[in-house]
Design brief:
15 strands; 8-stranded mixed sheet; biotin--[biotin carboxyl-carrier protein] ligase; 5-stranded antiparallel sheet; alpha+beta; aa-tRNA-synth_II/BPL/LPL
Length: 288
């Protein structure tokens, strides 16, 4: 789908969900010597990840390019799940990163790093307590129940780049939720649902964490990323079931996130098995 520029959107078409101010976002985020080089806002597109991968492949986007869509009609999550929401009800954006200083073997930490950055930014700007479900879901608490309010998807862009997409439900109401297990910042009691400062806070946090990780050569321990991710990970300490490729599954206690970003599951027979890819189901709350 060809993206439609956001400039033709009436600012008063929905008073509860005004469009983003692209000019103000660029002014606040694009700084000399900073990571973000371009902030592009489009009215609607199929997938910001697909668009940014294509722009990178055509040489039309470099590191620090941010693509934001007011509406995403074919957004994708892990395992090719669809991600849809009403126009201007959330934040749907992708960024292009090129961590040349970091060994490719450590690039798998980028979606986890993004999760930490997003959770940190939203805590500061929305006043909502968030938790991370391994590997890339953002959870909020609504009526004492954990619900998914966001997700992260990383894709390679050529040999030297990674596009990371983020989708956050901001003002979705109960009757708009795609599934009962979904949630939004508004439903979680956010002190602010103004998407402009929320987006700025997330991108500034991502710039900070990415710089720290890159300066450490991608070392998750030296950069503090591994410890911070574990501290905010709702999966650790719980009994989980990991659905793995090849119709295999593992059930046990999630005990750690290892140096490669894999979830370590301790099974009933005493084996600790690292899981690098799969769908994880929380079977019971963590013991506190």
């Amino acid at each position: 789908m060809t993206p439609r520029d956001a400039s033709d959107d009436s600012r008063w078409s929905d008073l509860d969900r005004p469009p983003l101010n692209a000019v103000a976002l660029r002014r606040g985020l694009v700084q000399e010597g900073g990571l973000w080089r371009e902030v592009e806002v489009v009215r609607s597109t199929g997938s910001t990840n697909s668009d940014l991968v294509a722009l990178a492949g055509a040489g039309k986007a470099g590191e620090g390019h941010v693509l934001v869509a007011e509406e995403q009609t074919s957004g994708r999550g892990r395992l090719d799940r669809r991600w849809t929401a009403p126009a201007r009800s959330g934040l749907f954006f992708s960024v292009l990163l090129k961590p040349a200083e970091v060994p490719v073997a450590r690039w798998g930490w980028l979606p986890l790093l993004t999760g930490v950055a997003v959770a940190t930014g939203l805590s500061r700007s929305a006043g909502v307590d968030t938790a991370l479900k391994w590997p890339n879901d953002l959870l909020v608490s609504i009526g004492g129940e954990e619900r998914k309010a966001g997700g992260i998807l990383a894709e390679r862009a050529g040999d030297d780049g990674v596009v990371i997409g983020v989708g956050i439900n901001v003002t979705l109401r109960e009757d708009e939720l795609p599934v009962p297990q979904a949630g939004s910042l508004a439903l979680a009691g956010a002190v602010s649902t103004d998407r402009d400062p929320l987006l700025r806070a997330m991108l500034r946090s991502l710039e900070e964490w990415y710089g720290r990780w890159r300066d450490a050569g991608g070392d998750p321990s030296v950069s503090g990323l591994q410890e911070t991710y574990a501290a905010g990970c709702a999966t650790l300490g719980r009994t989980v079931r990991a659905e793995l490729p090849g119709d295999r599954s593992i059930t046990g206690e999630a005990v750690a996130v290892d140096g490669d970003g894999r979830l370590v599951i301790a099974t009933a027979d005493g084996v600790q098995e690292p899981v690098g890819a799969g769908d994880v189901v929380h079977l019971r709350p963590a013991q506190g």
